[in-house]
Design brief:
alpha/beta, 6-stranded mixed beta sheet
Amino acid sequence: MNEPALVRLEEREGHYWITLNRPEVLNALNEPLIEDFLRAMDRVADPGRPLILTGAGRAFCAGGDLKGYLARLDDLEAMAAYFRLARQMFRRVADYPGVTIAAANGVTVAGGLELLLICDLAVAAESARFADGHLNYGLHPGGGSTSLLAPLIGERRARWLVLSGEFVDAREAERIGLVNATVPDSELEATANRMAATIARQSRSAIRRTKALMRRPFEQVLEAEHASLMEHFQDPETRRRLEEFAARSRARNQ
């Protein structure tokens, strides 16, 4: 029996939907999921159409797979290879010529928040919760939030979210400008489709050129964050924090 795809690509109402599909681990990002994501992007036949990203289950995305990080602490080349792959995923979303919309259906943390930040627009279900969260596990951002968050919500709020690791609910996320709208969970898909339909009426060439003019120096940010992370993973405190997370996870599953 074939394993379910870790990333699903579908057409709904004329728009592309990509769904992260590791619900048992809150759609945490690992190599197989990222590779599936890149393959899904390759299958987009008409990249001028809006592209909507969402997650299966109760999360949009919980970010990088922390157990995977722990397993690579003694193999930094494997760690670097993971982050090179992750950079490809973030760049593919950033460089998509059509409009990208994050439909945040639940927990949106760390790399999941950064995936939302890269999208042009975002809508949240009322049950969604948002946090940068990296520092909660002794890490720091690696998908661009050090640069992408402040222009959306303001410098002081961005510093608080990154440095505190605290969550905000969907209504607060809308109030501070993290998402464009908050809707009942049952209306998330329809709202994302309506947003996509509104954008789809505009000139594709004008959208592509406007996005290029608005684009921030994202690649340089990723390079700086990833270089810093490779040094950070060699810090003994980083290992201790990841081991503590793994121990808590084992205890919950027993």
